[in-house]
């Protein structure tokens, strides 16, 4: 019997924390049982174990360096923690066929160090960042340049991120593999109340939720009983709640808080439109989940969003930082059933054709096997 291909995944954060990378790793590894996965991540809390098995993945969390707790050390030391843990696993269990780092951040720094020590092991780097990479601190941008150059293959989730990687003078092969959706879980169902809007995101500035709150105040002038469900948590939560109160929207906006991804379809089923007026976006899996669930979407033409949103066909574009325009697009969908039905039908078809996790996993299977064969 042939031995399974062995892949070591490096990621700064993993479950139970929920984000685009975490969901991508979980959904792809679940669909690749023929590959053996180990994963190294940070121990962000003492409440999570240093080792556990999640699905088919052995998860190792590193929380100290030479006896010093990572809680007492700057996060820039995390690459060293990752490197030391990986070397320990390699010495104990043998070499990996592929080292795969998610995000060009601290975990990828660990992959960069490993590539120096194990130059023959293929180093795969996946870029998923949703923030504006050109506006990050200069040191991070400087170090990222070297990480890119050390990778054997770079995958990105959108054309926008592919252009960014190329702008760094990287000659590494680039493959565009977007994040996906579980279309068996996210599907059209429920009543879809026509006067309920929903957004799902981390409550941080880049996602533009403050602009959406202002837009709801505008929509309320024509639709007094309009409702907005805000799913998610983050550093802006208190600020957004205060803003809603000052605008007299206590009865119009409900802050749901963090919701497990498995329960998100229940909330999408209550709404009729999904809106997120992002300031920057790597791709935006929340939009694809909403489209799969049968909701028309309103979004800004930034980052990777134009990869899947064609204005008037699979969604509507609104202007960045413009609550009046956001409100206009919401009112347009509320008042035009033909447009709404077209957006719903086309959105679901697009997700089924290009963005299912089965299709995404097939692409990673090909990459892993090709990389491991090249190593030999």
UniProtKB/TrEMBL annotation:
CDD domains per record: GT4_PimA-like
Domain of life: Bacteria
Signal peptide positions on this chain: none
GO MF annotations in UniProt: glycosyltransferase activity
InterPro entries referenced in this protein's UniProt entry, alphabetically: Glyco_trans_1, Glyco_trans_4-like_N, Glycosyltransferase_grp1
Domain Glycosyl transferase family: 186-349
Record domain Glycosyltransferase subfamily 4-like N-terminal: where: 18-184
Protein's name according to its UniProt entry: Glycosyl transferase family 1 domain-containing protein
Organism the protein comes from: Candidatus Yanofskybacteria bacterium RIFCSPLOWO2_01_FULL_42_49
């Amino acid at each position: 019997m042939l031995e399974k291909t062995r892949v070591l995944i490096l990621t700064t954060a993993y479950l139970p924390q929920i984000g685009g990378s975490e969901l991508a790793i979980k959904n792809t590894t679940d669909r690749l049982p023929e590959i053996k996965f180990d994963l190294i991540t940070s121990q962000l809390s003492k409440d999570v174990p240093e080792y556990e098995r999640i699905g088919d993945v052995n998860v190792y969390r590193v929380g100290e360096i030479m006896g010093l707790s990572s809680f007492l050390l700057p996060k820039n030391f995390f690459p060293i923690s990752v490197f030391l843990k990986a070397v320990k696993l390699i010495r104990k269990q043998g070499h990996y066929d592929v080292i795969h780092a998610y995000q060009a951040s601290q975990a990828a720094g660990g992959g960069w160090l490993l590539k120096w020590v194990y130059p023959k092991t293929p180093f795969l780097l996946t870029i998923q960042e949703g923030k504006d990479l050109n506006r990050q601190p200069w040191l991070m941008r400087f170090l990222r340049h070297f990480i890119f150059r050390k990778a054997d293959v770079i995958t990105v989730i959108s054309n926008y991120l592919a252009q960014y990687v190329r702008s760094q003078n990287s000659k590494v092969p680039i493959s565009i593999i977007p994040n996906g959706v579980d279309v068996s879980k996210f599907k059209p169902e429920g009543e879809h109340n026509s006067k309920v809007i929903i957004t799902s995101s981390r409550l941080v500035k880049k996602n533009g939720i403050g602009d959406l709150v202002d837009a709801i105040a505008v929509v309320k002038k024509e639709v007094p009983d309009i409702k907005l469900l805000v799913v998610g948590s983050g550093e802006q939560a208190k600020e957004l709640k205060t803003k809603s109160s000052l605008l007299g929207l206590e009865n119009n906006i409900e802050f749901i808080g963090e919701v497990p991804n498995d329960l998100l379809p229940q909330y999408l089923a209550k709404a009729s439109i999904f809106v997120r007026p992002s300031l920057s976006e790597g791709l935006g899996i929340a939009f694809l989940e909403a489209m799969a669930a049968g909701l028309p979407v309103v979004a800004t033409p930034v980052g990777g969003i134009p990869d899947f949103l064609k204005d008037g066909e699979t969604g509507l574009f609104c202007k960045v930082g413009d609550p009046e325009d956001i409100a206009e697009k919401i009112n347009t969908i509320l008042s035009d059933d033909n447009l709404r039905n077209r957006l719903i039908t086309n959105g679901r078809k697009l997700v089924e054709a290009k963005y299912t996790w089965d299709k995404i996993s097939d692409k990673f299977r090909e990459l892993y096997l090709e990389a491991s064969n090249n190593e030999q």
